[in-house]
Every structure is written in C-alpha cells, then in structure tokens.
Amino acid sequence: QVQLVESGGGLVQPGGSLSISCAVSGRTSSINTMGWYRQAPGKQRELVANITTGGSTIIADSVKGRFTIARDNAKNTVYLQMNSLKPEDTAVYYCYADIRVLFKRRDYWGQGTLVTVSD
C-alpha cells in the first residue's frame, strides 16, 4: 500500500528556518510530480510548491525567495526548506505525489504536519 510519511514541522520563531520532508513508501510504478500544500486555520488549502521528476518547480508567490523545494528520486522523498518564516506561514503542511501503481494513477496525500511560527 502506498503511503506518504511526513517528518519535520514544529514551532519556530519568526525569521527562523525549518525543513520538512515526505517519503513515499510502498510499491509504485512511477512517481511524477511531488509537492506541498498548506492550510491555515479558517483558510482554504493552497499550493506552496511542487517539483517534477526532472526538477522543474512551481513556487507560490507568497513564499518565493524564502522556500525551496527539492526531491531525491532515489529515495522517493520530497523536501521543503523554509527560511525567513513569518507568522502567516503557520499552517498544516500536506505533501502529495502523483503516483502510478500499475495502470492506475492518482494523487496520494500525507497526513499533514503542523508548522507554527510564533514568538
């Protein structure tokens, strides 16, 4: 069974840095785009960043220049490095991956990891 397991997250002060990661476990045929969404209290889920197998990225304007997304295809893992964090970055961060298992292809989601930016 395919699962996405997130790690990292936690409490950080404004201006600080944090890194979160997400590893795909289980048997897959291919893993395509991977990325991160976030959802703040009372707000809709929004795309933070994604990255293709070839390394092309999309970064949300709200985090551009502060967040970096990367992936290790050998480890089936995607990373999000978050710098210069602001209180408005506080949210539950969800990783996702577009995965094909045999002849079926769909998005899989992690359980979410809470990032809190506060003094």
Stretches where pLDDT is under 50 for at least 5 consecutive residues are none
Q: Which percent range fits the helix content?
A: under 10%
User: Structural class per helix/strand content?
Assistant: mainly beta
Secondary-structure element pattern, one letter each = EEEEEEEEEEE
What's the rounded overall pLDDT mean? Answer: 97
Please outline the major beta sheet.
Answer: 7 strands, mixed
Task: From the structure above, extract its key features.
11 strands; mainly beta; four-stranded antiparallel beta sheet; seven-stranded mixed beta sheet; 119 residues
Describe the structure.
This protein has strands spanning 3-8, 10-12, 18-25, 30-39, 46-51, 57-59, 67-72, 77-82, 91-101, 104-109, 113-117. It contains no helices and eleven strands. It is elongated and about 45 Å long. The mean pLDDT is 97. Strand 4 and strand 5 form a beta hairpin. With 119 residues, the chain is mainly β. The strands form two sheets. Strands 2, 4, 5, 6, 9, 10 and 11 form a seven-stranded mixed sheet that branches. The N and C termini lie far apart (40 Å).
